[in-house]
Amino acid sequence: MSFAAHKTMHAPTGIENCASGFITHSAADFVPQIPPIQSDEFESDWKATKAMGPIPNLVVSAGNVLEVYVVRVQEEGTAANRDAKGQLEAKRGSVLDGITGASLELVCHYRLHGNIYSIAVLSKGGANGGKTRDSIILTFEDAKISVLEFDDSTHKLRTSSMHCFEGPDWRHLKRGRESFARGPYVKVDPQGRCGVVLVYGLQMIILKAAEVGSSLVGEKSILSDGGALSARIESSYIINLRDLNMKHVKDFIFIHGYIEPVMVVLHQQELTWTGRPLSKHHTCMISALSISTTLKQHPLIWSAQNLPHDAYKLLAVPSPIGGVLILCANSVHYHSQTASCMLALNKFAVPVSGSPEMPKSSFSVELDAANATWLSNDVAILSTKAGELLLLTIVYDGRVVQRLDISKSKASVLTSGITSIGNSLFFLGSRVGDSMLVQFSGGSGTSMSPHGVKEEFFDLEGDASAAKRLKRSPSDALQDMLGVEELSLYGSGPNNEQLAQKMFSFVVRDSLVNVGPIKDFAYGLRINADLNATGIAKQSNYELVCCSGHGKNGALCVLQQSIRPDIITQEQLPGCKGIWTVYHKNSRSHNIDPSKTLADDDEYHAYLVISLETRTMVLESANNLEEVTEAVDYYVQGQTMAVGNLFGRRRVVQVYARGARILDGACMTQELIFKATNSESSSGSEGLTVLGVSIADPYVLLKMSDGSIQLLVGDHSTCTVSVNSPAVFENSKKLISACTLYHDKGPEPWLRKASSDAWLSTGVGEAIDGPDGMPQDQGDVYCVVCYENGDLEIFDIPNFNCVYTVTKFVSGKAYLVDSLIQEPSSDSQKDVGKTSEKLSGQGRKENNPNLEIVELAMQRWAGQHTRPFLFAILTDGTVLCYHAYLFEASENASKSEVDVSAEYTANTNGTNASKFRNLRFVRVPLDTYAKEELPSGKPSQRITTFRNVGGYQGLFLSGSRPAWFLLVRERIRVHSQLCDGPVSAFTVLHNVNCNHGLIHVSVQGVLKICQLPTLACYDNFWPVEKIPLKGTPHQVTYFAEKNLYPLIVSVPVLKPLNQVLSLLVDQEVGHQIEHNNMNFDETYTIDEFEVRIMEPSKSGGPWQNRGTISMQSSENALTVRVVTLLNTTTKENQTLLVVGTAYVQGEDVAARGRVLLYSVEKNNDNSQAVVTEIYSKELKGAISAIASLQGQLLISSGPKIILHKWTGLELNGVAFYDASPLYVVTLNTVKNFILLGDIHRSIYFLSWKEQGSQLTLLAKDFGSLDCFATEFLIDGSTLSLAVSDGQKNIQIFYYAPKMSESWKGQKLLSRAEFHVGSHVTKFLRLQMLPTLPDWANAPPGSDKTNRFALLFGTLDGSLGCVAPLDEITFRRLQSLQRKLVDVVPQVAGLNPRSFRQFHSKGKPHRPGPDNIVDCDLLCYYEMLTLEDQLETANQIGTTRSQIMTNLNDLTLGTSFL
After folding, report:
1. In degrees rounded to 5, what are phi and psi of residue 306?
2. Is the pLDDT of residue 594 over 70?
3. How far is CA 534 from CA 336, 538, 978, 1329, 1457, in A?
4. Euclidean distance between CA atoms 433 and 508, whole angstroms
């Protein structure tokens, strides 16, 4: 393996930073939305609900992923009635403050080329009447700062300023140091006047905000943004805190209530540590600096000394109180310029000598590593390290703070950050569990006597009820994730009955799934695996079982890259061309109330129509599938083109090649035979057949074989249709390549908002209003047409006025804008003209890809705020996906734009009114989807949209690589489906036996009726199922023969302190303790370890624990492995479970460990597995890693590695290697080679020789490296060694004794190095899948087949792989990668090349070769426009098709799951 590719297959999910701010809208945009209902409630009930104020956006970051969400709130009595889905939620979510539910909806998602260290939101506060939007400030190590704002015209974030303090010009800021304890940390003035970033320990960078109304990019940009101003940074300067006599800064914050920005800095004058609090304790202090950005001065205005040494966090108290809270591990302090007070949280809080006694809280709690945010101006919510929520109340009178109060609240996830969103929501971000959006309601209730204080403990647990809630969650958002209970809380002051108490209720409204931190994973068979599968379908037999989470959020995450539906029944059905299900409502039931769409969702399908090569089958589908082909009036003598419902499900339309039939149930009511249009002679009419059909009630669009288009227009009153040939297309010379109908459903059709005049909607809605009780407005229907020259047009129906035109749609631009308006980003689009001229010349180099759109679909799914998606499939199999958005170009727009529209209005006699001037589309990347080359020939319809399959909505893409496109939170999640190979037809089925299921037919001719697995959550990069463990999982392994997963779990247990101490001391010392009569009544938390043997349940329910092996007291299980050992007495192989442990008894007791061997037997009935211990042996040192080597057992105990043989009764040592490793982290074996990774001393490469029974060191890496994971990488006949380290890098070494620089073979040489950006904890070697031989026709040698990739998991929840490449491919992709650094605009202005360079954090490191390409950057190539793709490929001397083939082969070769 000389060359490789790194590919992120599953982006990080563990949320590290969260913040809220008005990014996509301003606070002023919200005023009209407060419903008037609340005023009536106010009169009737004095305890009225509080009005939901403006709700800001939520910004979260996980690793290098940045996401912006908008919070959608369902209000009682408004949204729920308008929307069918809303009604479901109204029943489910408990009502709090008139809100029935709230969910997060994605606005934008970016994978940056750099890990986000901290986030802040720069807000101008109430300036400019709340019209100014906020900006996001991101910081990246070592000292990079980017400021981003939302751009309405492109619906994306754009960079407004970048600040970098790295490189030779700024080296003096480091003062000679190379590594720093923390990265750049940003805080912002609450009124938005400046931001401050602390870099390099003691350098403060002051970012001065621009005044409202000034602009960086020139005045034009403000106007064209439709007047949306965002806060911006104007300039920056540096303060060196050393000059202010500050040495060790711990935290800093801006406080409220001053005219100038005032920053409070928490710093330590001299260092101390936990072992010396007797002599040095109160070493911290705070200093308040008034920052004048104009004078660049920062005088000290007040300070406070003598704070505890464990103070770590500052919290600015909101106005009108002001001041600052200092959080310490054992106490909380409040300080302002005039007053101070404190509260002791446990008995370790020590007052300063000579000062009065500290007030104590009513219960004991440790507050180190807490996160906090404000619920109101005097109540803060704290989330502790144990995952409890505490309420901290400031009791004040006027502006004088009298005391602090703390009270317990709910248990929740272990948080990494917490932020308030508006005045009634907060968000708990977590790295180790699911993050949650919680609504709270707080009013001061009447005062209650202490015995009336009642605490209801409903935990806000994230992962525990994951399986439960996913089963019943609707598709829009996994609503009210956790409890529907009202969580109410009464916190009382100590014995103060008169205190008006704060009463809070909490409801969890939404949660984001997190699969990190992945500590270990195993690769095993799924329960519903098909053992006869071959090729790529075989891969979907497997799943990854990951140890993730920590403490009570610990869980097993079962990840699958592809969806594998649960089969209900299957039949052989060769030659199937298409399959449809239809409803049938007879007229009686129809008259009840057609607006009840709830019933629609649960109505069973009446008929299933199957089109075969020469005939059509019809089956009744309401109960059991029974064939009724003979009994119905359907056309059954040939193939069917399409079947669908018309007239509110009262009729069925069936279109076949020569005609169409309208049916009422089984009876035909009308038949049409298609004839050629008048312009042609009648003789040509016999060849006229239907090629494509699109149905949107009450219209049917037909694409005919002669290229013409016909429209069947339905009449609601008579339930009949008539043929209409649109005149627009008859006269045009342009040939149509694809067309579809788009039904913009009422009652608020989305596209009407896009027309330039909101009141002039197209006149379709009125035409539909029928006297027979039809709903008032069914919405509008549009026809989307794509021509062979690549242009796209949208027409309204039935008048066929063109309302929207896009030129060169086929090239896949980043944005689609009505071509009569100036393009949104002039720079990216202005070269389209010149490249199209070049294309003719370029076509000679690369046979100009004659790309056309072969299929179109436009769909808006159910949900109150959903926007339409537009999908298109090109002839080369590329899928384009666009998401619509609205952008109103302002009236005083730039001159050229005005001219264009004025000129247009004049030309078209004022039809501009219904022109969709404000409609735009932004392209959505589908980088996970491996496209397929389409066979030339008749294009079949591949896109099937569905509204409810297992509670999800989206579309299914059939073909040789079927995929599910699920719409969750307004984002498209793409999940492939490999298990049945190519799929030729798909439809949904809802009946008695199959609840919201599906039918698909594979190309081999197998029809399967299936359901989506209910427990899996599809709102993730891969489908995931979480199994809560209520403990921390450490390591998992797969027992293939029995299909069991043994895993190590530790559970925290409270023990009496006496018992804990007696374990830790040697006997002699123990006696002394007794003499001193020290009786400890306290308890202490200790982790108790056990090995659980888990089995996936057959029914798809929760996993079962089949057996538990408990460890002794203070014994930690470190490793568990399933090994195959050769029994030397019977000469048979035995498969055993081996556990390696260590006794952790403090530093006074010598380390010992045990090796335990177990045999596992499983009875066929689903009872417990029989686990019997067959051998145990105590060794010196911890048993940290185990592997089997050619039938023998390799154990690392302390600094030794010992090889044992198994006699059937005991382990006997055969050979040992006593290197200088300190502590072995990983052991890997291949044949007789051993790779071991050490905690500090990098890797060792050993071999085992049986002749002399010896382990010999072949070579090692002489550098210092903190190993996290190691593995062998095999590419054909070459063996390489991969290792990941504590600085988030991967290195690949090789052994070459003949090379001179290897010091006669003692030293391992570097083959490649790469910065992953996450801690890699486990590598798994998997054989790459064979892809189709590319056009180079490489000889099918053994090197091609014996090629392995490494799949890895990381601590931030991401998964990726390192896959070997051959040299030609590598050189091609590497030159493309270098090109893309400049061609693609990078989000936040980050440089991909510097991100991927080896990070050594100041340790000496000799740079290795750059032999790994970064697929995260290469996937941007597919997002370029076609012209740019051809141009870029031409510049590096290759072709677009060649690059696409290479990228596709890589995706296919690594689809392991």
Report:
1. 55, 50
2. no
3. 71, 5, 11, 11, 13
4. 15
| SS3 assignment, position 556 | strand
- b/e map of 622-631 (b: 16 or more CB within 10 Å)? beebeebeee
Tokens 């080369």 correspond to what residue? 876
Q: Got the DSSP string for 924-984?
A: ---TTPPP-PPPSSSPPP-EEEEEEETTEEEEEE-BSS-EEEEEETTEEEEEE--TTSSEE
Q: How many residues does the chain have?
A: 1457
Which DSSP symbol is given to 838? H
Would you say residue 687 has pLDDT above 90?
no
Rounded CA gap, 1302 and 1296, in Å?
Answer: 7
Q: Confirm if 1225 and 1239 have CB atoms less than 8 A apart.
A: yes
Give the CA count within 13 Å in the CB-facing half-sphere of 675: 8
3-class secondary structure, 1343? helix
Least confident range from 198-202, 441-445, 516-520: namely: 441-445
User: Which phi-psi region, left, alpha or beta, contains residue 233 (left: φ > 0; alpha: ψ -120 to 50)?
Assistant: beta
For residue 461, give Cα distances in angstroms to 289, 434, 435, 509, 1240: 41, 9, 10, 12, 37
Whether residue 953 contacts residue 966, with contact meaning beta carbons closer than 8 Å, is answered with: yes
Six-digit token string for 1393: 């090349």
**Whether the Cβ atoms of residue 1293 and residue 1228 lie closer than 8 Å to each other:** no
Residue among 314, 256, 322 at smallest CA distance from 287: 314
Please name the amino acid found at residue 40. Answer: D
832-845 and 1426-1435 helices cross at what angle (nearest 10)?
Answer: 50
Q: How confident is the model at residue 97 (pLDDT cuts 50, 70, 90)?
A: confident
Residue 152 identity (one-letter amino acid)? D
Helix (H) or strand (E) segment spanning residue 246 = none
What DSSP line would sit under 90-103, residue for residue? HHHSPPBTTEEEEE
The Cα 1189–Cα 1200 span in angstroms is 16
Nearest residue to 150 via CA among 864, 885, 867: 885
Percent of residues in the chain assigned helix, strand, coil, to nearest 5: 15, 45, 40
Tell me what pLDDT residue 938 has.
58
- Closest of 696, 910, 684 to residue 796, by C-alpha: 696
Q: Which two tokens stand for residue 58?
A: 């939520």
958 within 8 A of 980, measured Cβ to Cβ = no
Burial of 509 (0-12, 13-18, 19+ CB in 10 A): buried
Distance CA 888, CA 882 (A): 19
Confidence of residue 499 (pLDDT cuts 50, 70, 90): very low
Spatial CA neighbour of 61 closest among 133, 21, 111, 106: 111
Q: Which tokens is 1452 given? A: 């296919």
Q: What b-and-e string marks burial along 1390-1421, b requiring 16 or more CB atoms within 10 Å of the CB?
A: bebeebbebbbeeeebeebeebbbbbbbbbbb
β-strands 1412-1414, 3-10 pairing = parallel
Query: Do 15 and 416 contact (CB within 8 A), yes or no?
Result: yes
Dihedral pair phi/psi, residue 562, rounded to 5°? -125, 155
Strands 792-796 and 802-806: antiparallel
Peptide bond into 849 cis (omega under 30): no
Task: Give the whole-number percent of the chain exceeding pLDDT 90.
Answer: 55
- The residue among 324, 329, 309, 313 whose CA lies nearest residue 268 is 309
Using a 10 angstrom Cβ sphere, with 0-12 exposed, 13-18 middle and 19 or more buried, the burial of residue 592 is exposed
Q: HSE-up of 413 (CA within 13 Å, CB side)?
A: 35
Yes or no: say if 476 and 500 are a contact pair by the CB < 8 Å rule: no
Name the helix (H) or strand (E) containing 396: strand 388-397
